[in-house]
Amino acid sequence: MNIEPAFTVLRREQLLMDHAPHSVQFENLTGQLLRTFSAAAVIPPLTMAEIRLYATLALLHDVGKRAIPQEILNKPGYLTPEEFEVMKSHTTQGCELLENIPELRECEAFPLICDVCRHHHERWDGSGYPDRLAGDSITPWVQVVGLADAFDALIHPRVYKPAYPQDQASDMIASGACGIFNPLLLACFAQHIGEIYAVVYSSDG
Ligand SMILES: [Fe+2]
Ligand SMILES: [Fe+2]
Questions:
Q1: What's the 90 CA to ligand 2 centre distance in angstroms?
Q2: CATH number of the domain that 12 lies in?
Q3: Mean pLDDT over each residue of the chain, to the nearest integer
Q4: Residue 24 domain-assigned (yes or no)
């Protein structure tokens, strides 16, 4: 699949900043997880080209945050239930934003981009949002993006929390503190995250 036509449109619309240091790390983290999970057969097998494709598409998961007010995005401390509902809508608003770009709708990668934008907060037990999908009705590579996103959020500081060290972040993921993930992915994650972390985050950025 050629994702360049879609990426050209997305860059023009300023919806993609694929060279920011944090983006490069997130793409690498997602790629390493996809490669590891595929090799361990806890997700359907992927070719190198597919791993690269999905890792790059992962950069688009939070496109819908463009539609969320800054005061909610950057609020220090916890969100009120109402604010959290608005925050959650970055999934559905991301899809709407993408659907409103006619040229993008023509692109081969469009359904994949919509899938990751809408479903990266779905969780294995159906407790996620917006569609409360469960199990493998969440596309496996999108499950991996959700896992990468949860881990990445833990190891970086946010306005409402400090950065956690790698081992603590991994424990929080494993214990379900960030939502329930596929247990097969989690077992493989626990086994390999130390080495993956060292590879992805050894260079600063
Ligand atoms: Fe998100
Ligand atoms: Fe995210």
A1: 10
A2: 1.10.3210.10
A3: 94
A4: yes
Q: Is residue 159 part of a domain?
A: yes
Amino acid at the residue 151: F
| Structural domain contains residue 89 | no
149 CA to centre of ligand 2 in angstroms: 5
pLDDT tens digits along 129-182: 999 999 999 999 999 999 999 999 999 998 888 999 999 999 999 999 999 999
Tabulate helix, strand, coil % of the chain (nearest 5): 65, 0, 35
Cα dihedral sign, 171-191-144-122: negative
95 C-alpha vs ligand 1 centroid, how far in Å?
12
Which residue range(s) make up the domain with 31? 4-60+120-200
> CA distances (Å), 122 to each of 20, 146, 200, in order?
26, 8, 25
Instruction: Say how many Å lie between the CA of residue 49 and the centre of ligand 2.
Output: 23
Is 0.85 topped by the overall pTM? yes
Q: How confident is the model at residue 49 (pLDDT cuts 50, 70, 90)?
A: very high
State the average pLDDT over residues 67-84.
93
